[in-house]
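agent> fetching stored inputs for the magnesium ion docking request
agent> found them:
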Amino acid sequence: MNQVCLNNKLFGIAVSKGIANGKAFVIKTRENDFSHFADNSKLELSRFLDAIDKFEKDNEEKAFRLNEKERKILLGHTAMVKDPYVFDSIKKEIENKKTAEKAVFDVFEEYIKLFENSNDKITIERCDDIKDVRNGIIEILQNKNTKVSGIGYNSVVVVKELTPSLISSLDREKVVAVISENGSETSHSAILARTLEIPSILSVKSATEIIKDGDTLIVDTENSQITINPSKNEIIECEKKKEKIKAENEKIKKYLTLPCLTKDSKRISIYSNAGTFFDVERGIKVNTEGVGLFRTEFLYMDRETPITEEEQFQIYKKCVTALKGKPLTIRTLDIGGDKNVKSLDLKKEENPFLGFRAIRFCLNRDDVFIPQLTAILKASAYGKIRIMLPLVTTANEILSAKEKIECVKMTLSKKKVDFDSNIEVGIMVETPSAAISAEKLIKYCDFFSIGTNDLVQYIMAVDRGNKDVKYLYSPLEPAVIKAIKHISDCARNQNKEVGMCGEQATDKTMIPLLVSLLDEFSVNPAFLLKTKYRIAKYTTDFSKWLVNEALKCDTKAEIENLVKTTSQSQKL
Ligand code: PEP
Ligand code: MG
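agent> prediction call returned; pasting tokens
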């Protein structure tokens, strides 16, 4: 057995949660064993045109099963091949006597090389999409069906390259889990895996070499672990875990109609996170009490020109109307770092996570910020909207942003346009500076929302996407717990609300601590009921005691152990 496989175990990055067992269905990389040259260019051209026609139809069919955002990914693939430059280049190669397959391969290869050499993580990730399109068209030209069609029930699909088109063509009735050698948490394939709720572990080194077709596998995302040909005991353990998850899912259904309460009946607000109108609807379906974080950067992505004030207004209005009086917390544009927006012409930076991003960018770009604030204020006439500023580090930033908000209010008043003149303005607390100076910053805010995705990254000085330093990226580190407690105390001392909208608000080890520290949890709609269920397990007094004990601990392991050993006694 290879050295990357320890005791029949393989490890990777868990991107879509769950546990499953089944038989391995290994898909090896497709060989490009086609001829390179052809005499009849006319025939090759017509084969190519037919292939893109079929590719487009197949994609439309697959996209039909997906939501708005995921559909866009697949339809973007069709757009890629229809791009006039790509199309003309392939045509030219065919006219130079290449076969349609070779022409497609060569033109796409150029793009792949270009993207692979970029320093931008997102651009590099897009290589998977380009390869996917290239392979898809070549496969149609070769009249090959991917092996996916022969898949049996209870299969764990193991692939070298997990592509959006592959994952969206999987039959959810038959495929219980997915393992791939490539991919990361933010890749399009990972987004699709989460949407389709297929337990998936990506970035598993040499998976298609080590795992053999027909091997029995356990895929457990809790510890990002794959067990090859497990023992009887391991299968029994897996079945027990599956039963437990099933029973939990049954239990949590009742929380759909129950209010969000701690065990001692203290009311906590439970909000959902969103990036599109579709996400707002997903929240509404699970009875969200509002949207605690609406990430607006997605509205600016994947477009050639920046989104206009009117377009934004229509989207915010649609979201706040759908929420029927429940709050919509709109985070002003948070770009830079890991989020690039082509249409805004951002400069390349040496240290993008410490650079000209989020509120820093907006305060310097009235051409972007003012239209956004105007759209938000205009939409505030149709329901309850709150403005949330990202990546704040100083009180001056809040004051400057508020000045701009007041200017927009004056302009709207002059034009006799309705808006909520008492609109609340709060900040995301996600930098060490904001956390340390929380008692100062809260004076200028109506609320705080703790952005732990970034707060952990900046306190621990670890890139949140870097696998090699992942061991340091934890909200249970003593420094992070101390910061969260301080932020919470500062907000409450001034009778202001404090929430959390980072992913860690759903973390089962964090929740017992957070119950006494937060007034509001804002979570992915898929985890809303589970979070409510977990909150209901603990009393505020127990949580307060736990936080005090945690503050005495020196290491993450001690805190983890403390929570695990003591919270058992608090169970419902
Ligand atoms: C956060 O940093 O916790 C957060 C919610 O914002 P994002 O993940 O968009 O940076
Ligand atoms: Mg953030």
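agent> quick read of the result: The pocket of phosphoenolpyruvate (ligand 1) is lined by residues 293, 295, 334, 430, 451-454, 501-502 (CB under 6 Å).
agent> awaiting further instructions
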